[in-house]
Every structure is written in C-alpha cells, then in structure tokens.
Amino acid sequence: MEAARKLLIKRRNVEYVLQYSNVTPFMWHKGKYKCFYCNETTKDPEILRQHTAEVHQFANLELVVFDRTKNNRNKDAAVKIDVTGISCKLCPQAVTSLEELIHHLIIAHDAEYDVSVPNCLLPFKLDKDQPTCPTCNMKFVFFEYLLRHANKNHLSHHYICDVCGTSFQGENHLKMHYRYYHREGGYTCEYCGISLATLSKKILHEKNVHLVNLSTCPHCPETFKSPYLKKLHLANVHGVEELKIKCPYCPKVYPQESIMSRHMRRVHLREKNVECEVCGDKFFGPYDVKLHMVKHNGEKRFVCSVCGKKFSKRSNLNSHSVLHTREKDHVCMVCNKAFAHQTNLRMHIRNRHSQYEQSEVIDDSDMVQMEVIQEEFDGDVPEQYIQ
C-alpha cells in the first residue's frame, strides 16, 4: 500500500537526521516543550536541548520514531525539530539549515534519505523569548504562533478535499476530515431520533439542542458552550486564582495563557504581520484587515433604526445614535440650528457663518466621534479632525 510505504520512508528519513546530526526533536503540548523520548516538559528550550543531549544520546531511535508516528493523527504530521546550532555528527563540515544538512548527509555520507517523501521534519529555532522560523527568518513572541505559521506556509499540502477544497498534509488527515464533515451516513441523534446527514452535524445538533457535553460550573448551576467560557466564568465570578493569568504589562487578567498572549501581542507589542492587499497597510490579524477593507469597498452594514443612515462600523453607529437621544442645547445665534455638542456648533459657525466666528481655536480634545460631527454638520469637515 502506498501510504504504508511512504510512512516507512518517513520514519527512516527521521531516524537518519536524528542519528547523524545534533538537532533536538520535540513535541508541543499545552504551552510547553515536551521531550520527544520521555515526555518530560519544560518552557525553556535550552533545558530541553541539554536534557535531550545528556539523557537520550543512546536512545533506540527506530523504536521511538515508530512509537511517535504510529497513530493516525501523527502518521502524516512532520516531526518537529530544533535546529539551533545545527551540525553534522560525522564530520566538521559546517551546515546552516536542515535542507543543507540533508543534502550533506546524502552527498558526503551516502545516507539513504528519500527526498521524494515530503513533510518528514519541520525545523524551528527555539529561543525562550523569540522563537524563529529558520525557513523565512520570521520571528515570533510565542511558539504557538510560529507553529501555526510553519504548518501553514512551510509544509506541503498535496491532499485536497474534492468536496470543499480544503488541503491537508497527508492522506490520513484528509480521510478524517472527509469522515467528519462530508460522509453521509444517516447519523441519528441519540436524544430525539432526528436524522443528520454527517457526523459533524450530529455532534453539533446534540451539543446545541440537547446541551450534551457542556461544562458545568462546580460552584453554581451555570453551564457553558466552551471550556474558555467556563474558565472566564470561574476566574471572574468565583475568583479562581489559577485561572487568572495576568498580563505582565497591564492589570488585565485572562483565563488562558494563549488569550493573554494574544492581548499582549496586539496591545503592547503592536504586532502587525497581516498586510492589506489593496494599500499595503499592515494589521495584527485577518479580522483587523476585514474591518479595514470597509475603507476600500465602501460597505456600510450598520443602519440607524431611527433615521436610516448607514455606517461602516458599529462604533460609528453608536456614536451617531447619541444624536437621537441627547438634548441639543447648543443653539446657533445666527440661524437657530441646535447641536448636541459645543464643538459641533463652533464648526457650524466656522463653515456657515464665518463672519461671526470668534477668534478662539478649537481644541482637539473637545472633538467627539467623527460620525457625530458629520451628522450634525452640513459642510465639509476639515481633514485634520478626521480620526
């Protein structure tokens, strides 16, 4: 069978690299690096490297590699390796990358590494503060984001679902995807007997309709649709301290380290890795780009229920709504038009009745949301006041 043949080649390729180089294989689990050989965990990659070199230098590679690649999920997954200070064990020839090492082993040492089988190894340069992708040299604050980047951009995804077009690294991943999302088998709900087309629809139905597998709070009757919501509830309502992960730069706390790290990357480190294809501006993530694209496509989905005016952002609609609730007690002495804000009255006088304009300068700190100004003011707004 072709899949079995490729798996054997993959295992042999991994063994060659681990045996003839100083790279450190590892696993990643719940925010920690995990020893490839004995499952010992650490957050410090230097400790992982020392542990692997000292404790597992004579490990039975064939047995360990087989064990790590025997289940369906890992048969297709690439083995993660740290290539910091990569070198050949057989000679002093300098190498700087995994690709260069493999080429060197084949040419100089007659290693039977089969390059026709992809996704055997996935290299990283591990650093406690700034892990790096050795393939494109992109640096990250947290390893989980580097891992996501490497899986998406530096592995072959040749197995494509013919139903939805999603691509996968290997055949087993594709099969699991198809079974879960597309294989129609007349799945029956165990609680009400309704027939669902796919396994994913059955699970979703039982979860949403019959509240199956929902986490219940141990302190009160509250139930939750996700582990994250339960953790958030425990941290904020019941004050469970171990779930309060504090941001090192501000007083905010989060129930998960991944959520806290996302906050830190967005707010404090101001990471901007996603680029707008239209203007080239960079943003933190795809969602931010989606919001930004409103600027280019002019889409206005938020409609005022009172006057029908449309807005591109919900925040602008909320600012506009003030006009329908707040009293307009700032009245123009020339034409009697009323405004909710003194600043808007001043701008109205400047543009409609310039001959009556006073000499004082409008303070930028008095400015309200731009949508409020645009609604109340009939003329063009000076560019320096647009936020």
TrEMBL record:
Domain C2H2-type: 159-182, 245-273, 274-301, 302-329, 330-358
InterPro entries according to UniProt: Znf_C2H2_sf (IPR036236), Znf_C2H2_type (IPR013087)
GO molecular function, one term: DNA binding
Keyword Phosphoprotein attached: no
GO cellular component, one term: nucleus
SMART domains documented for this protein: ZnF_C2H2
Location relative to the cell: Nucleus
Signal peptide region: none
PANTHER family in UniProt: C2H2-TYPE DOMAIN-CONTAINING PROTEIN, KRAB AND ZINC FINGER DOMAIN-CONTAINING
Name assigned to this protein: C2H2-type domain-containing protein
Organism: Spodoptera exigua
Upper classification of the organism: Eukaryota, Metazoa, Ecdysozoa, Arthropoda, Hexapoda
